[in-house]
Amino acid sequence: MISPSLATMLCFVETDAAIDAQPLGRFLDAAIERSFNRISVDGQMSTNDSVFAIAGGGSGVRVEPGSDDERLFSGAVAALLKQLALEIVADGEGASRVARLVVHGPAGGSEPVARSVANSPLVKCALYGADPNWGRVLAAAGQVLPESRDVAFDLSIEGIEVARGSHAVDLDGDTHERLRQAMRAPEVEMTLSFGADEESEIWFCDLGHDYVDVNSEYN
Amino acid sequence: MISPSLATMLCFVETDAAIDAQPLGRFLDAAIERSFNRISVDGQMSTNDSVFAIAGGGSGVRVEPGSDDERLFSGAVAALLKQLALEIVADGEGASRVARLVVHGPAGGSEPVARSVANSPLVKCALYGADPNWGRVLAAAGQVLPESRDVAFDLSIEGIEVARGSHAVDLDGDTHERLRQAMRAPEVEMTLSFGADEESEIWFCDLGHDYVDVNSEYN
Q1: What ipTM was reported for this prediction?
Q2: Range B144-150 average pLDDT
Q3: Catalytic annotation present for B8
Q4: What is the CA radius of gyration of chain B?
Q5: Residue contact A209–B209, C-beta within 8 A
Q6: Preferred mutation among A5, A122, A147 to probe B, highest tally of B CBs within 10 A
Q7: Residues of A annotated as catalytic (active site), given as ranges
Q8: In DSSP terms, which residues pair with A15 in a beta bridge?
Q9: pLDDT tens figures, A164-212
């Protein structure tokens, strides 16, 4: 969970724009889908995460339906919520490193694959140890792939292709060192492709000693 | 996984009884179902866990189909595999404490509930901290219950009822102290009931600092 002693994540967004509840709610729902619903600290649902938006209209500037202002406004809501969601992962229960994973395919399966990798304690411990252990990424993905599926995958970490056509790429010494350096950064990007158009994106944090302390020594 | 650098769990059972491959395999399958398939270290599948049984027949004692010997033999296989499986959980990647959870119902849902609790990092960290944090048990269970289900549950830890009819039991000071003491033992038993006959049992270990070390500092 995000914070087990608190109630649990309450997000309040305020604007002085003048906009009706219905379009505001629609922009908020769309933004939540691409932000708070795309993060995972430890795969554990909390009981009362909530996002509220309040438009007081104090500026007197009306956001007219279909206007450029409306597009700018909805874009700003989306950007703000994504920023807040990413801060939650980065602050999440002793996190020291954040990963962004983009999964392409398999058709109908990119979402469970993304969540399985993001919530794998082995992947998260390897991230904590700054090790580009892509076998763990694949093992976690394989756990939710249909048994009979003949999978072919490519995997890149920080733009470095580590597996292509289901086989390990033989990295030269320099590239391997670059990869190890990249894993030590506060943010690491991974792309796992099963060659389908469908795409799921998720942000997750590592699992280290501080997570254990936060969640076992809270009394 | 059980041991990420090894291949991964290979279990060999040998007997000098004379028994055919077919009944031996049947007893083995039944025993695996109630032992190795009922444990979880961290919910992560490994690629090549295998159990083999070899009956050399050296004793010259034939296990006749339908005989008392056959019942004794299959019981011994079941007991042995359960013992071995429990040792794996107890030895699992830095484990310091093991829990046995029995889930009664809901109909058709006891298995996912058992696994969700067993694999919850929050439940496992509380177990590491020896805290009878039953809210985490219920939260992990609730994560896989159908949304619309009107659940009523009872929960006991080491024979002490902590929740009854979905409400916390008000424990007196002595009972609470007994509960805290029981949580410090190497094995903790929990029973979660949704009032249906269906039963699923699972053993799992805690998640502590040694798990993080084993899985992040293996290089």
Answers
A1: 0.85
A2: 75
A3: yes
A4: 20
A5: yes
A6: A122
A7: 8
A8: A55
A9: 999 999 999 999 999 999 999 999 999 999 988 899 999 999 999 999 9
